[in-house]
Amino acid sequence: MNSAQLISSLTSDTRKCIALALTLSEKSPEYLTRRPEPNAWNILECIQHLNLYGAFYIPEIKKAIQKSTSLPEKEFHPGWFGDYFAKSMAPKEKLNKMNTFKDKNPIHTFLDKKVLDVFLAQQSELLEALEMANQVSLNKVRIGTTLSRLIRLKLGDTFRFFINHQMRHVEQINKIITKMQEEK
Hints:
Blueprint: H1 3-24, H2 29-33, H3 43-67, H4 80-89, H5 114-132, E1 142-144, E2 152-154, H6 155-183
Antiparallel strand pairs: 1-2
Helix pairs in contact: 1-5, 1-6, 3-5, 3-6, 4-6
């Protein structure tokens, strides 16, 4: 896959996340914390979940890019493991339910609209990292994962996995919004 096109597509998806967060920032705290079902995440919990992953991945990505002396390549070749993770996170018409790690599960924690501020700041940093990625190899730069720092994915796969994960939860938020509109 073409490296520049991949970065462009991921940048576009990140901008969609920003647009959603800006729209959500205009909503009331009651709206943002309304549960679609008793044990389902509300909108702020979805965003906080993404913040928890962003707090790990975005600094790791930026640090690895800054340390890299590799040169960009025209083509990105997904790794087997990274491609599997990226595809498993991609939004699908019928989302398969996945369990999250306990330390990344914000259900029933007190959250306020500051969660959206953190998310927007992280998305800005992610856009910076995507821009920086144009200067290095998406194939050679490696990023540790939250599973284990010993499991290292190619930079291109890390971006794909991370941003697909965000888009998956954007879908979840859109479903929550649709459900709330139907209940009116």
